[in-house]
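Quick note —
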Amino acid sequence: MGLKTGILGGTFNPVHHGHVELGLHILKAYSLDRILYILSANPPHKINQDIVSQELRWAMLSLALEPYPRLQPCDIELKRQGYSYTIQTIHQLRVMSPDDLFYFISGSEGFLKIRTWKNYRELLEAVSFVVVLRKKEHRPLIETLLSEEQVPLFQNSTAQGERIGVSIFSYDSPRLSLSSTLVRRELKAGGNVDSFIDSKVKNVIEEYRLYGD
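Predicted structure written out below.
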């Protein structure tokens, strides 16, 4: 029997406390063995955006996750050429860890746009989803989408098991609304971000003068 593995992808530009807190909540709620934080090298939905180099984002992600051995940085997309498509990553992970049960973690905003993802139907049939509810009004929209796509909605985390489908996960925390965009905005304005990011991540940002004017 393999591991119960969560998959949390993103540009992490930069990684912040909200990313870490989310992982810790989902580890517990779904009894996962680990969560892979997959750094997107070339996300197709963020073309022409100001994204810090892969090397520096990887350094910051590794430092932020260092105290949490079950939250693991993963460079699988950095080693692959071209855009970072989720379906390709899932196929690759299945080859690398064929016995693992995978749970793909997505924010509700992103999941509601899943029909724009490459080979989205294949993806919905290949891996279970944990959709993090960012706004309460997203729930009925997600339920409608799943009904139209004929994808099972699991009402609790323990029901999922080895079956493919979607569960909606929610929790209350001020960090749930924290975003990398907000962190970059504060940094550009010269604000205090100590409550947003790890001190080691802040050191990298200051050393390389990232996200400034």
